[in-house]
Design a protein that fits this description.
Layout lengths: L7 H4 L4 E3 L3 E4 L2 E5 L3 H11 L5 E5 L5 H9 L3 E6 L2 H12 L5 E5 L2 H4 L7 E6 L17 H4 L3 E9 L9 H10 L2 E7 L16 E7 L6
Parallel strand pairs: 4-5, 4-7, 5-6, 7-8
Antiparallel strand pairs: 1-2, 2-3, 8-10, 9-10
Bound molecules: S-adenosylmethionine.
The site of S-adenosylmethionine (SAM) has 23 residues, from strand 3, helix 3, strand 5 and helix 5.
Amino acid sequence: MKKYPSHNDEWNQFKVDLREDELIIGDWQVMQAWELPLMKALAKEVTWNHGDILEIGFGMGISSGQIMEYGCKSHTIIEAHPVVAQQAREWAKKQKVPVIVLEGFWQNLIPALTDKFDGILFDTYPLKPEERGMNHFSFIPLSVNLLKKGGVLTYYSDEKLPFRHEHLDLIFTSFKEVKLQYVGGLTPPEDCEYWQENYMIIPVCKLDAEGI
Ligand SMILES: C[S@@+](CC[C@H](N)C(=O)[O-])C[C@H]1O[C@@H](n2cnc3c(N)ncnc32)[C@H](O)[C@@H]1O
């Protein structure tokens, strides 16, 4: 039986095994390389105006790399695991725009953030069984205060068709304008433990010009 961390800080003690095509933390497949088309789609949406980007969860740095490909003014990364955060800092040194890596859990760091962002890309990992498929839910309402007017939140959604109603209700509690985008061409291997569809529906949530 796979072991969830008994509390968030235990996550940080789990062993990190970064391979060419996947990132394993403790017992968990946290990220795999087949997600590239998905990360590319998220990065394209979040860099809509090439502005200031907040990314939560560095993982293998695939989406971070895509954000740089599309271009941004600044890139702030929040990453909880110290080994992954160190990889993010190494990666950051090689980028042409300012990259700030904040090490810690977003739940602890967000309240102290004073900056606002043009785009937020959220892709963490469920650390408790009850967060499976919905680890983004608690962040959605809080994202509004971190976005500039007209800013965009997008994320790894865990959504296929039909899109879950409770998820849509939650999004529309915080945002008035939402695009649901079909990202196809996904090829998760048979042993992928967290996704088996060849597509995912990603929300792109836009804060209107007045803020909500
Ligand atoms: C799925 S990976 C991110 C993958 C990334 N988008 C990529 O393209 O490689 C999730 C990352 O989020 C981190 N993480 C999990 N929970 C977190 C939290 N509450 N706050 C910050 N980082 C978290 C994990 O340590 C892991 O590195």
